[in-house]
Design goal:
- Helices cover 45% and strands 14% of the residues.
- By secondary structure, the protein is α/β, with parallel strands linked by helices.
- The protein has two domains: 2-198, Rossmann fold (3-Layer(aba) Sandwich), CATH 3.40.50.720; 296-427, NAD(P)-binding Rossmann-like Domain (Rossmann fold, 3-Layer(aba) Sandwich), CATH 3.40.50.
- It is elongated.
- The protein has helices spanning 10-21, 33-40, 51-60, 70-74, 98-110, 127-138, 158-163, 175-184, 186-190, 200-231, 235-243, 264-277, 283-306, 334-343, 356-362, 371-375, 395-401, 416-421, and strands at residues 2-6, 25-29, 64-67, 79-82, 115-119, 144-148, 168-171, 195-198, 314-318, 347-351, 366-367, 380-383, 406-409, 425-427.
- It starts with a strand and ends in a 9-residue tail after the last strand.
- It has a six-stranded parallel sheet with strand order 3-2-1-4-5-6, with helices on both faces.
């Protein structure tokens, strides 16, 4: 099938590349000419393990191309996916849909024969109906349907998520649209991947509800971690004990400094606003947002206390991205914790394997060449992101480089007894602080 993917951000580029791997002919479109030029030259503008190989293979096979021309890409396409950004409006909770609606207008002009217009971007309930209205207004004669097909990709494992998803959700109103979407996802259908067809409204809400529920699990275990610290419990034992219950499950029960990234923060805000607008307030989601924001500031206070006050001290920070295996720093806990520490008088030295480019734009700190460079001469080290390379640090070397053997591990990647035995004061999340 012929597919146009409008937007070459995280969702658009991964989705377009993987659909071309399914055997479809995909044109990925973006208005930023520099980005398209880089993609044509074989440069991948985001860090996602395995994406460069998928792109290169399908470009070479002639199934994947890149363009700045929406009209040419949409003309004659069986399906046009809208995968542009939907950030929160500045100072507001609403998702900013200007790019979605602008894309809809340009697609409408170019329609040539029956086409399914698919919203891949995360959009509030009712957006599909608005897209349909826009296209009808611009091209009353056009033959098309609008479908919702939310993405459920995890940064750092997006390729595998697309190839082997838990489910594919499609919201559409006609049999003709359903047949086109079935054909697009035919390789997954043959692998018996559940494909759920719903109304557009249900499909749009499924995405927000899923992210809000996962954000709630993270926030819940973070609150249990705080309680564990007060009563002498171990949050990892608590998480294991409740996660073995099949009704709860173990995923997203990892205590830490709070959730961040491109999805959970903006999606919980957008869901809250949608619910408020329709007179059905979501008090659980409201609490999740409030607790998560407070969590990041609490972690800065935790670090300050562990250092006996960070004023005048050098703090080594390992990890700045919101999670490992990505260069994404959108709403990362580091963007709150690091400035808080600086406000308290700390000097920050930091290292992140992939986040340096974004960190230079967002933080005023010293960025180091590796973990040991950041640790050298610091008064203590803080682990903010659980990159694999931080899981196997040479602890003896770390101790020798620090002014004081202090580690604050906000991801619980080390064992307290091991660290105490190595001569460290070790502060983690939801577990007892240990000393030599």
């Amino acid at each position: 099938m012929r597919i146009a993917m409008i937007g070459t951000g995280y969702v658009g580029l991964v989705s377009g590349a993987c659909l071309s791997e399914f055997g479809h002919h995909v044109v990925c479109v973006d208005k930023v000419a520099e980005k398209i030029a880089r993609l044509k030259a074989g440069e991948i503008p985001i860090f996602e393990p395995g994406l460069d190989e998928v792109v290169a293979t399908n470009v070479k096979a002639g199934r994947l191309t890149f363009s700045t021309d929406i009209a040419a890409a949409a003309k004659g396409a069986d399906a046009v996916f809208i995968a542009v950004g939907t950030p929160s409006r500045r100072g507001e909770d609403d998702a900013d849909l200007q790019y979605v609606f602008a894309a809809a207008e340009e697609i409408a002009v170019a329609l040539d024969g029956y086409t399914v217009i698919v919203t891949k971007s995360t959009v509030p309930v009712g957006t599909g109906r608005e897209v349909e209205k826009i296209v009808r207004r611009v091209r009353p004669d056009a033959q098309f349907d609008v479908a919702s097909n939310p993405e459920f990709l995890r940064e750092g494992s997006a390729i595998e998520d697309f190839r082997r998803p838990d489910r594919v959700v499609v919201g559409c109103d006609t049999d003709k649209a359903r047949e086109v979407m079935r054909e697009i996802y035919r390789p997954l259908y043959l692998n018996e991947t559940p494909i759920l067809f719903t109304s557009r409204e249900s499909s749009e809400l499924i995405k927000y509800a899923a992210n809000a529920f996962l954000a709630t699990k993270i926030t819940f275990i973070n609150e249990m971690a705080s309680l564990c610290e007060k009563v002498g419990g171990d949050v990892q034992d608590v998480a294991r004990g409740i996660g073995l219950d099949g009704r709860i499950g173990s995923k997203f029960l990892h205590a830490g400094p709070g959730f961040g990234g491109s999805c959970f923060p903006k999606d919980t805000l957008a869901l809250r606003r949608t619910a408020q607008n329709h007179g059905a307030p979501t008090r659980i989601v409201e609490a999740v947002i409030e607790v998560n924001e407070a969590r990041k500031h609490e972690m800065a206070q935790k670090i300050d206390a562990a250092f006996g006050g960070v004023k005048g001290k050098t703090v080594a920070i390992l990890g700045l991205t919101f999670k490992p295996n990505t260069d994404d720093m959108r709403d990362a806990p580091s963007l709150v914790i690091v400035p808080d520490l600086q406000d308290k008088g700390a000097t920050i030295k930091a290292f992140d394997p992939e986040g340096e480019r974004e960190a230079r734009k967002l933080l005023n700190i010293e960025l180091c060449k590796d973990a040991y460079d950041a640790i050298d001469g610091a008064d203590g080290v803080v682990i903010l992101t659980e990159w694999n390379e931080f899981r196997a640090l040479d602890i003896t070397r770390v101790k020798g480089l620090l002014k004081r053997p202090l580690m604050v591990d906000l991801r619980n990647i080390y064992k307290p007894a091991q660290m105490a035995g190595a001569g460290f004061t070790y502060v983690s999340v939801g577990r007892k602080t240990v000393s030599p």
